[in-house]
Design a protein that fits this description.
Order of helices and strands: EHHEHEHHEHEHEHHEEHHHEEHEEEH
Largest sheet: 7 strands, mixed
């Protein structure tokens, strides 16, 4: 069975495994205070052109989202997000469990707009009894989004301006940041991206690492005591050097973006194959996730040899599915899928 259901099926890039083996018997202090983590932080700050940023390594995406959001909000505050946002639909209520409400608003192609954000805050402050309501106090978006779309530089600039108007930090979930920035349709560089938010994270779990995410905090007001929140939320790894070594490797010789580009290129082959056969898509994704709409019979045909995600039922006969490529997807497996698509 060839798997296309997610972008973390494989283990880790061979260079990471080699580096972990090379350093296996080196003794270091724990909890991310070692020389490998220090070097990885320096590499990331240089890549972001953010020398004053704080960089922290956490074990996974859910811990990262819960840690960042709970570190920013006061008990009566909530986070504005897309209704399709990962924190709203795929994290088992982790944000609500921390005592904060996800204030979900309608998304268009997985994205929310500056206009919607401004309206959400304006509606709250127009009420005469705000103390009876959850207060919107920060904004969460994903890049790339849960459906593979990406924000343009102008869209992100407008969103950040809307957030600043209400003194609401902008937090960007970068679980698939590499795939978003490596897309030919992206008009943002990593330094520009870093300058247009208050805190974001660089996803490792889905972009070549065994596990782990790197939080980058650019807003000085959000830096204080962040390590306390990491520990409290179960995101701090005792053998922290395992995270540092992985990000050190990913940000050496541009590996992070090389592997992301590999996944995107293969995803475009899949998209083009479906388009050539006349299939429609749930949405047009320029990244590693593709959402063709298939008949129930066509899904059954492909299920014999390929594993993919059932995404959204369109009607009694048609369903949108997701094919997801990764840093480790083999071109020969994509070729087998292309041959199967041709027979549909």
């Amino acid at each position: 069975m060839i798997q296309f259901q997610c972008d973390y099926n494989e283990g880790a890039h061979p260079r990471i495994l080699e580096r972990l083996m090379e350093t296996n018997f080196c003794q270091t202090v724990g909890y991310g205070m070692d020389e490998y983590c220090d070097h990885a932080r320096a590499l990331i700050k240089e890549a972001c052109k953010s020398p004053d940023a704080d960089v922290h390594f956490l074990v996974g995406g859910t811990q990262t989202n819960a840690t960042v959001i709970s570190s920013i909000l006061r008990p009566y505050q909530g986070v504005v997000c897309a209704e399709t946002g990962h924190i709203n639909v795929h994290e088992t209520g982790a944000i609500e469990h921390s005592g904060h409400k996800c204030l979900a608003i309608p998304a268009q192609g997985g994205k929310i707009s500056a206009k919607q954000i401004l309206q959400t805050f304006a509606n709250y402050y127009a009420e005469g009894d705000q103390e009876h309501m959850v207060q919107p106090a920060m904004v969460y978006i994903s890049f790339s989004t849960e459906v593979g779309s990406i924000y343009t530089k102008q869209e992100l600039t407008d969103i950040y301006a809307a957030c600043r108007k209400y003194d609401a930090p902008l937090f960007i979930d970068g679980a698939r940041l590499g795939y978003g920035l490596a897309s030919p349709e992206c008009d943002l560089t990593l330094p520009e991206f870093a300058s247009l938010c208050d805190v974001f994270y660089i996803g490792g779990t889905k972009v070549g690492a065994l596990f782990g995410e790197a939080v980058v905090i650019t807003n000085p007001a959000l830096k204080k005591d962040f390590r306390h929140f990491i520990k409290m939320n179960g995101g701090m790894l005792a053998k922290g050097r395992l995270l540092g070594i992985q990000f050190e490797t990913l940000f050496t010789h541009n590996l992070y973006f090389e592997v992301a580009k590999h996944a995107n290129n293969l995803a475009m082959k899949i998209r083009n194959a479906f388009k050539a056969k006349g299939f429609n898509f749930l949405m047009d994704s320029p990244t590693n996730q593709q959402f063709p709409i298939l008949t129930n019979n066509q899904i059954e045909q492909l299920k014999g040899d390929f594993l993919f995600s059932i995404w959204q039922k369109m009607d009694d006969e048609h369903t949108a599915v997701r094919f997801c490529t990764s840093w480790g997807t083999k071109p020969e497996n994509v070729d087998k899928l292309l041959a199967a698509i041709e027979k549909l």
